[in-house]
Amino acid sequence: MVEYAAASGPVRAVDRVSLTLAPGEFLAIVGESGCGKSSLLFAIAQLLSPPAEIVSGSVRFLGQDMVTLADEDLRHLRWRSYSVVMQSAMNALNPVMTIGEQLRDATLAHEAMPGRMLRRRSEEVMRLVGIDPVHLQSYPHQLSGGMRQRAMIAMALLFTPQLVIMDEPTSALDVVAQRSLMIQIKALQREFGFAVLFVTHDMSLVSHFSDRLAVMYAGQLVELGGTRQVFKDSLHPYTVGLMQSFPSIIGERQVLQGIPGTPPDLARPPAGCRFHPRCPHVMPVCRVEESPVFTRSDDLVRCHLYANGHGPIASIHQRHD
Question: Is the alpha carbon torsion for 187, 179, 151, 116 positive or negative?
């Protein structure tokens, strides 16, 4: 669990979220702004800073609980075993250093390497992400948004880590650059076999590139399953609402339906199910009792509708993208 210290009391941004990620798997996390997606990623990567804090739970990676590791031990894991690609490359990259200088600093922070070998490795990772090594001499402002994101991915792959954590890396790009970048990421994943934990708002990217999909609402995980299965037969009413709020390019034309209301204030979440004030299928129990997590087929869903093992909303949304 992750909480933020506030004058009125702690705000729980991530509440009892449990995930596993297999080697080579692409797991996407979606949900409205403020639902805790980025806080979850930063907790996993051990990059939270005050007023945020992990108050309970563990993050197990390569047999170790990273929550209990000392900073020096974490430093040896970061970039070598796992790396992070931030949301805005323009803010994440140092504006007064060339891309080559930043790759050099990231490398030397973890491994002593002769200059010629370092140059060769920098050129290799730049080519991997489709950038001419001549841009090792470029500053971030001299590159396009897509190239800056690719440079960040090149930096993340310096030591071919086993896990790459990505926090909305395509949010500042146009749709053509988004697709190009995602195709590149998938190609690199197939080549090197690293796992990807990917936060995004873009459901079309999720549908085409992820293996499994986790849906978060108000700090909690409300649905988790194979991406194709979740798109085909969404279980949680919130997931159904998400699927109905963006258009499909195939099938009959349908009227888009947003989710009424607004997400709750995490400082004062509603009693019972956190989605019940906005849910079209709310029942009396939803207002007073928080739902446990139920298993249906290969999906996990946090909803009282599935207490009897089937749930009445299973067939209200059938979408084939």
Answer: positive
